[in-house]
Amino acid sequence: MCLRRSVPSSHPSPGGEEENERLRDFDMTNNPVIRLENLSKSYPTSAGLFPALKNVNLTINTGEFVAIMGPSGSGKSTFMNLLGCLDAPSSGLYELDGREVAKLGRDELALLRNRTIGFVFQGFNLLPRMTLLDNVALPLIYAGVALAQRRQRAHDMLTRVGLGDKANSLPSQISGGQQQRAAIARALVNNPRLLLADEPTGNLDSHTGEEIMALFEALHHDGITIVLVTHENDIAQHAKRQVRFYDGSIISDELTQEVSA
Amino acid sequence: MKLAMLGEAWRAMGANRLRTLLTMLGMVIGVGAVVLMMAIGQGAQYAIAQSINSMGSNLFILLSGSTQAGGVRTGSGGALTLTVNDANAIAELPGVQAVAPIHPGSAQIVYGPNNWNTAVIGSTPAYLDARAWQVVSGAAFTASDVRSATRVALIGQTTAQNLFGDEDPVGKTIRIGQSPFTVLGVLGIKGQGMDGRDQDDTLIIPLTTAQRKVFGTQFPGTVRMVMVQTATQEIMPVVEKSMTELLRQRHRIREGMDNDFSLRNLTAVADSAAESTRVMSLLLGAIASVSLLVGGIGIMNIMLVSVTERTREIGIRMAIGARERDILLQFLLEAIIISVMGCLIGLLLGIVGALLTEILTGTLVIISASAVLVAFGVAATVGIFFGFYPARKAARLDPIEALRYQ
Fold first, then answer.
1. Per-residue model confidence as pLDDT tens digits over A162-206
2. Which residues in chain A are contacts of B323 at CB distance < 8 A?
3. Does B310 touch chain A (CB under 8 A)?
4. What is the ipTM of this complex?
5. How far apart are CA A118 and CA A137, in angstroms?
6. Which residues of A touch B406 (CB under 8 A)?
7. What is the C-alpha to C-alpha distance for residues B57 and B267, in angstroms, rounded to an integer?
8. Is the Cβ pair A84, B319 closer than 8 Å?
9. Which tens digits make up the pLDDT trace of B47-68?
């Protein structure tokens, strides 16, 4: 079950390969987690191919907190699905953690989604029949972690997002904000290098949204690379870098103005 | 990990209890029907085998021919064409093990205040050998009893029960008509015969006694039937041929004329009865298997619905790292759990049904371990077979399509 990543990375990897993820993250601060070259995606429609993304070039380094912005239909969700290895690009290069995603099989992609990427959805996407603890522990099942450890790690992660006392609640018994926190805990439980969030505050009121963003900022401080899609400027202000999409292309890529020291 | 999957499958089934139960019901009925039908079929086979065994093995029965008087034909045995000498001659043929001339009849038997009408068989000690009939208490009569036509009798269990109750019949004197007979021995239990009659409701006396002192006969030395046992079943056709030739020769029947006797291969009759029972139980099993198949298709149907319903869940699972085989295993496990549980309940109901059948109708049923194992194995296979396609469909879903599914 444990297919470890043994493909050599494009960057120098000092010392013992894993275990100490923090150390590795620190060493790789200036190495790209995501590297995109001329990435394009088209969908077949009745009127021919619709280009959702056109020749996108972007590099995101370890530890960055990037907001992807743009109006609806600008291609940012398509972009997010490509980053999350949920969808395959039509052309171009996508390197995640030094590996070319297009060359990976379905099982290897599943492994990436399990270990390297944490995905947070707009609609939370918790499994309704499971308790929060089981929901958060689910990625660990696919990672082959033993039961006792699963429960421990899931509980730790719920505590970290402030839901330690709700471990045995069902998603329907808690508020939207709490559900999103649980979803974030689930995304983080396998210690991913990259956290992808698609409109994570879209279904929440602005106050709860702020709470979620505060959580993202705390995670950013812990060194996790975060890419977040939003169409709200307020939300984007929390990120350190803002990338704007329009009509399937990047139209601007700048650091957030009032950087909090 | 496998345990966690099992738990999840269980939870998913619990989420839609009624549907799970209804799906299971198909399996329950299928397995129950197979178990019940096999129990009844095997019971019937066993009953037939029992009566065949009680009949004796490798047996021919020779019957005297019919006579024709003024266009009216009597049945077999109407003319006493067979003689004791014929029987003795047949006994000399190679391959013949035992020959017993028989004079059957029925008579009213009296013992003290009790009386009972039973089938009386006049024969020789060879009859007991041919029928493999034990004398369980007392002793059998001998050839010298036959020679001197002594008034002795062997009594069947049913007859003994009716005349003597709990008393020991050995050494007691019974009457047939006005003649006193000494009971020499009690015969072992034979049970129901091929024709459905109680074989234990009988009295066996020496042939000569039957002919001369009980029933009387027009032509001394003739018999109505002769039972012939061969050494093995393989040589029965050879013996049949040589016996026919011998009798035609002895009776001086010319070429082209009909036999004045008839010869039946009892073992062949028994075998065909056994064969038809076997075919019947196979048929029952086959019909029941169809319901098992229908149950399996029901599982596939529900699993397909379940996969469609849970497309989004599958997408979420894939997004957090489930591989194809994880999804496959999850749905396959569900199908297997449903079929195995259905199977267990079906087994239980089938066994209960079989026992009820035995209690209510008196039909013998046999629940064999092999039938249970076969039903279980088939059910598990059906679960895997019909669960595989929906599970593979789920596993092959495109993650992004699945996530978008509403």
1. 999 999 999 999 999 999 999 999 999 999 989 999 999 988 888
2. 106-107, 110-111, 142
3. no
4. 0.84
5. 13
6. none
7. 7
8. yes
9. 888 887 778 888 898 888 765 5
